[in-house]
Amino acid sequence: MVLWIGVDDTDSLQGMCTTFLATEIVRELGEEHDLIGYPRLVRLNPNIPWKTRGNGAVCLRIGRGKGSGFPVGRVGGRSLRAYREGEGGPSPSDVLERVCSILERWAMFDDPATNPGIVVLDRRPPPSLYWKAVRGIVPKSEVMGYLRTCGAYRAYKNGRGLIGATAATAWRPLDRTYEYLAYRSRRFWRAQRFLDVSSVLLMDRSFPSTFSNIDPIERRVAIAPRSPCPVLYGIRGEAPGDLPRAAAILRGEEPERWLLFETNQGTDDHIKPDDWSLRPRSATSVEGVVAKIPQTVPGGHVFVTFQGDRIIDLAFYEPSKAFRKVARALRPGDRVRVWGSVRADGRSLNVEKIRIDELAIHRIRVANPICPTCGKAMKSVGRDHGFRCIHGHARAAASAAMRVDIPRAITLGWHEPPAFARRHLTKPISRILFGRKGPMEQELVARGVVEPPAAPSLRDPESAEYAPNS
């Protein structure tokens, strides 16, 4: 049986990155042990208040590889390979000591919010732990119950990182994407990054299997972080074989190393469909109708009153930029489905994407009715009370007013924020429309040669069957 290594909470807002630590672990352990499968980057509940940045944990599998390997990275001038199957992992306690020595050289212990955890398991926790960690809040006591029977572990400071580290090993992918993470030379970690925008646009056009690369309107790059961490850029995509070729197109600062991760990014795993309980710090997808005209508040945020099983506010915040235009164009009676995260108060939903299924007729009054006797415009008697002739000749119902339908400044279908404003776990519309289609099939759909697939099912994956060793 291979060993499962989970690591979490080694970074901070001031620097480092748990995925960079993974490159160091793979480099050192790779001298004696084989990497089994892709390294894994597992994002957990994005609404956790004590997360550092993207709430991502790392999972590595090691043992003796079987068959021929495949490339997954390059670190220290040496190419890294992984194997699709493996057996006979080393002792968990021996591996734990080596991983701890690596972590202690790199983790941001000075940051009070950084609380690293490492697990080395010869038996994995059940998949239910992953779903709890990606959709809710898992107490440390629950994780400790698994760890006492599964292998070796070590906690630093308050040990909160054990939760994410253990949950990462419990992930059995029902959906997955990949990310090519390129890292900077250490001397550049706090310097400004440079990536040629034109090369990012070319890469985005050349590889339709990638997603969330750049906002073409604002020409704002979404693959490069803005924090002082070791990551130079990360290219996300459906096809792992495309990602190194996509990276070769980029121009700018040269990376010092790279590693290719299998990940749950862009899967919507954090969303629990049709969950109207609206538990604080959870995420859901719900359907209903717009109840009031949208309101823009100071700061540029837009709020929309929304009615389904209950009345809530839909929040479109200023950082989502042009996405707020969609919110402002909504009108009472529009039927929509929204995906988003529940605020701490449980009364509003931070919208991550929206599907407009039905547009209400937006009709305005342009003139009062004309008196049939004197030909003059009638006067309103009061709201919903009709009209009367100013000379007393006749009366008319409120429905007699002259009205016209106003063209809607919005279209049916899917709408989402620009790439730089999306959360890691949020499934982009391109993945929803094209599913797992390759670049050629995507091109055929775009040209209208073949029909796009139907909208995806909202089946809750917590009830699905799992491959036991995936």
What would your notes on this structure say?
With 470 residues, this protein is an alpha+beta fold. It has 3 domains: 1-270, Alpha-Beta Plaits (2-Layer Sandwich), CATH 3.30.70; 272-361 and 408-463, OB fold (Dihydrolipoamide Acetyltransferase, E2P); 363-405, no CATH class. 20% of the residues lie in helices and 29% in strands. It has a 6-stranded mixed beta barrel with strand order 2-4-3-15-5-6. Helix 1 (18-29) crosses helix 2. The protein is elongated, with a radius of gyration of 27 Å. Mean pLDDT is 90; it is low at 436-459 and 463-470.
CATH architectural label of the largest domain: 2-Layer Sandwich
**Widest sheet, order of strands:** 2-4-3-15-5-6
Q: Termini distance? A: 13 Å
Task: Name the overall outline.
Answer: elongated
CATH class of the largest domain: Alpha Beta
The stretches of 5 or more residues where confidence is low (pLDDT under 50) are 436-459, 463-470
Major pleated sheet: 6 strands, mixed, barrel
Assess the beta-strand content as a share of residues.
25-35%
The overall number of domains is: 3
The number of strands is 28
Number of helices: 10
| Sheet/helix structural class | alpha+beta
Helix content: 10-25%
The third-level CATH topology of the largest domain is Alpha-Beta Plaits
CA gyration radius, whole angstroms: 27 Å
The average pLDDT value, as a whole number, equals 90
